[in-house]
Design a protein that fits this description.
The protein is α+β, with helices and mostly antiparallel strands. The chain contains eleven helices and 22 strands. Helix 1 runs parallel beside helix 5 and helix 4 packs antiparallel against helix 5.
Length: 383
C-alpha cells in the first residue's frame, strides 16, 4: 500500500521503476501495478508475485540477496537495517538468532520488493522527511504458518514499540509486519499532519474491500518556513563506575542504531564522586533498541525516559562549489533568509588534505555559498 501510494503520486516513470527493481534484486518476480476502486476512491495497487518461490527462506538468505545487490549504497544500508529489525523481532518471538529465523508470511520476494521499492520511490521523489498518523492495527485473529494469532500479530506489535497505535472497529489485519517495519523506521514522528503546502496526493490500495476505503493516503508537499514540532524520547542515566574509554564506542554504536544525538555532561554524585550523565535523543520507535544498547554497553542499572518535543527549522540538502571541489551542505531557512551550513566532515577532509586550518576552509565554503547563490530546492515532505 505504501509503494502503491507513492507511485500514485505521479512523477515516477513506472516501467523504468520496475526495470530498476529487477536490476536491483536478483530474484525472479513479477510486479503488477493497476488502478482499483475502494469505496469510490481510485487507488494504485501493487501486487508482487514469484513464479517459483522457495518453500521458506531464512532471514540470512534475504540479507545475502541485499548485500550483493547493485542498489545504491545508502538505500541498501537502509533496506538492510529495516530487514534486520524484522529478523530481530521474529527471532525474539521464536527464540532464534535473527539470521536463522524462517520468515514465513514475510519471507517471499515481495518483502524485498516492498522495502526496496518504497525506499527507491521516496528517493526518486526527493522526499527528505516522513511523518505519519497513529497506526491502525485492526483486531480479531488471522491464520498464519504458526497457527491462529491475534491481531495485531506479535511481530507487528513488537515493530510498533514506541509508536502510537489504535485497534479501531474493523475486523482483520490492517498493518502487517512489513508495513510496521517501514513506517516505524521511516517516520520521524507520529501525529497530525505538519503544516505543508500540498503538491500531490496519492492512494495505495490494500487487497481487501472493507467497510471503509481500504487505502493508504500519502500527501507530498513542501514544508512551510516555520519550525515543525517532532516528538522524540530523551534517555538519560548517571554513571560513576565505568571507564570513560567506553564512551567513544558506545556513542558510535548509538548513532549507528539511529540515535538523533548523544551527549555527555560531567556531574558530581553522592559524596561528591565525579560522574557523568549520558543523554540520548531518540525517535519514538527506536527508544527500546537504544535502551537495550545502553544497558549492554554501560554499567548503569536504570535509565530515565522522557517524551520531548523538538522544534525543527526547514532545511534542504545542497551542494557548495569551492576551490577544492563540491562540498555538501544544509540550507536552513530563518526568518525568510536562507543560511548555508557547510558539511563539517567534508571541510575536515579538505583541511587534512590541504594543510589549511579548518576554520579557514569553513569560512571559504560559506563565502562561496553566498557568492554563488547555491540553489535551495523546496523541502519535500511525505505524510
Amino acid at each position: 500500500m505504501f509503494l502503491g501510494a507513492l507511485l500514485d503520486l505521479g512523477g515516477i516513470d513506472v516501467p523504468s521503476f520496475v526495470a530498476s527493481l529487477h536490476e536491483f534484486l536478483p530474484l525472479s518476480f513479477a510486479v503488477d501495478i493497476r488502478k482499483v476502486h475502494r469505496k469510490g476512491i481510485v487507488a494504485t495497487q501493487v501486487v508482487v508475485s514469484e513464479p517459483n518461490p522457495p518453500k521458506e527462506r531464512r532471514a540470512r538468505d534475504l540479507f545475502d540477496l541485499l548485500t550483493g545487490s547493485p542498489l545504491p549504497e545508502a538505500l541498501r544500508e537502509k533496506a538492510l537495517k529495516i530487514l534486520w529489525r524484522i529478523a530481530e523481532v521474529e527471532g525474539k518471538i521464536h527464540g532464534l538468532p535473527p539470521d536463522e529465523v524462517h520468515l514465513h508470511e514475510i519471507g517471499g520476494g515481495d518483502t524485498l520488493v516492498d522495502i526496496v521499492g518504497t525506499l527507491y520511490a521516496l528517493d526518486l521523489l526527493g522526499v527528505q522527511a516522513v511523518y505519519a498518523s497513529p497506526v491502525p492495527t485492526g483486531r480479531g485473529f488471522i491464520h498464519t504458518a504458526h497457527g491462529v494469532l491475534p491481531v495485531p500479530a506479535p511481530a507487528t506489535l513488537e515493530l510498533l514499540r514506541g509508536v502510537p497505535v489504535y485497534t479501531g472497529t474493523l475486523e482483520g489485519e490492517l498493518t502487517t509486519p512489513t508495513g510496521a517495519a517501514l513506517v516505524s523506521s521511516l517516520a520521524q514522528s507520529f501525529g497530525p499532519c505538519p503544516s505543508l503546502v500540498v503538491q500531490e496526493v496519492g492512494y495505495g490500495a490494500g487487497m481487501q474491500d472493507l467497510e471503509v476505503p481500504n487505502v493508504l493516503r500519502v500527501i507530498l508537499g513542501e514544508r512551510e518556513e516555520r519550525a515543525i514540532p517532532e516528538r522524540n524520547v530523551l534517555l538519560e542515566t548517571n554513571i560513576d563506575d565505568m571507564s570513560p574509554q567506553i564512551l567513544e564506542y558506545l556513542t558510535e554504536r548509538l548513532f549507528q542504531a539511529g540515535a538523533l544525538d548523544v551527549f555527555v555532561t560531567p556531574i558530581y554524585m553522592k559524596k561528591q564522586r565525579p560522574a557523568f550523565t549520558l543523554s540520548v535523543l531518540s525517535p519514538l520507535s527506536l527508544a527500546p533498541l537504544l535502551r537495550t544498547i545502553i544497558f549492554e554497553e554501560t554499567t548503569t542499572l536504570g535509565i530515565r525516559e522522557y517524551e520531548v518535543t523538538k522544534w525543527v527549522l526547514p532545511r534542504t540538502a545542497t551542494e557548495i562549489p569551492t576551490p577544492w571541489g563540491t562540498v555538501r551542505g544544509k540550507a536552513v531557512t530563518k526568518h525568510g533568509r536562507v543560511v548555508i551550513l557547510p558539511e563539517y566532515e567534508d571541510c575536515k577532509k579538505i583541511a587534512a588534505q590541504t594543510g589549511l586550518p579548518l576554520q579557514e576552509v569553513l569560512k571559504i565554503a560559506q563565502e562561496s555559498a553566498s557568492r554563488e547563490g547555491v540553489p535551495t530546492p523546496g523541502h519535500r515532505e511525505n505524510h
